[in-house]
UniProtKB/TrEMBL annotation:
It comes from Miscanthus lutarioriparius. Residues 7-26 have a biased composition (Basic and acidic residues). Gene3D superfamilies: Serine-tRNA synthetase, tRNA binding domain. This is Serine-tRNA synthetase type1 N-terminal domain-containing protein. Residues 15-62 form the Serine-tRNA synthetase type1 N-terminal domain. The lineage of its organism: Eukaryota, Viridiplantae, Streptophyta, Embryophyta, Tracheophyta.
Length: 70
């Protein structure tokens, strides 16, 4: 009787472990996907900043009307 009880306990633990492994795998895959998306967004941000910096350099200084020019 004790042996059956121990076997039953062991089997229930292995099912639990299997489910935990499945969950862990899903989480790792999700994390990998997030890392890839983040890397793509970082590239997009760098490109946008580069474009912005280029356009900003074309804008001259805008003087306030109180500043006199010669």
């Amino acid at each position: 009787m004790a042996t059956e009880s121990m076997r039953s306990f062991r089997e229930s633990r292995s099912v639990c472990t299997s489910k935990q492994e499945e969950e862990a795998t899903k989480l790792m895959e999700s994390t990998d996907e997030i890392k890839k998306r983040l890397a793509a967004k970082e590239v997009e941000v760098r490109e946008a900043k580069s474009t912005l910096d280029t356009k900003v350099t074309m804008i001259g200084n805008i003087m306030h009307e109180s500043v006199t020019t010669r």
